[in-house]
């Protein structure tokens, strides 16, 4: 079963409270998502493999460390996932950025992928799927399916807020995927919004309400 990491860092929890506030402007909302994604990016990369690397300081030779395992590709789910890209890139600037776009089929209510663009070497990379809200889990499951179809085998997700229901369905569908979360909220309401949540992340980010 994939692991679930809830990040309890005081800075993340503090910024999350401002993010939830309905009076926070779109401008501040975007900045906060970037800052939270940067802090989460630090945690999600904590277990990256290191190897020794010789380096010469102005005084002498020594042996430092360098990241030596799989390279990273970020996969934001359009559109709210885009808001997390810059924050994570600020701690892993060499990561590739792939994209997945989805809409909900009005008849089946299932997410359908209408766009995806991945690096050719996706199977050799650690994939970090970005979506601020893990609600029903439907679009995250479809995004994971999509990166697996493209050959990815090492996958983790980064979600700022998650509902317990969504975490469970993702874990059941993809037991090999680790889920990194800023905060696990109480539940989903009848319209698949997370409670207490923060409303529609995409609308608040881009001012489209
Ligand atoms: N997506 C959002 O943006 N907000 C929710 O509460 C659920 C899904």
From TrEMBL:
Keywords assigned by UniProt, alphabetized: Allosteric enzyme, Glycosyltransferase, GTP-binding, Magnesium, Nucleotide-binding, Transferase
UniProt catalytic activity: UMP + diphosphate = 5-phospho-alpha-D-ribose 1-diphosphate + uracil
Cofactor: Mg(2+)
Superkingdom: Bacteria
Keyword GTP-binding attributed: yes
One Pfam family in the UniProt entry: UPRTase
An MF annotation (GO) of this entry: uracil phosphoribosyltransferase activity
Presence of the UniProt keyword Endoplasmic reticulum in the record: no
Gene that this polypeptide is encoded by: upp
Activity regulation (record text): Allosterically activated by GTP.
Domain Phosphoribosyltransferase residues, every copy: 7-208
Enzyme class at the top of the EC tree: transferase
Enzyme Commission number, as recorded: 2.4.2.9
UniProt family annotation: Belongs to the UPRTase family.
Cofactor, how bound (note): Binds 1 Mg(2+) ion per subunit. The magnesium is bound as Mg-PRPP.
Protein name: Uracil phosphoribosyltransferase
Positions bound to uracil: 194, 199-201
Protein species of origin: Peptoniphilus equinus
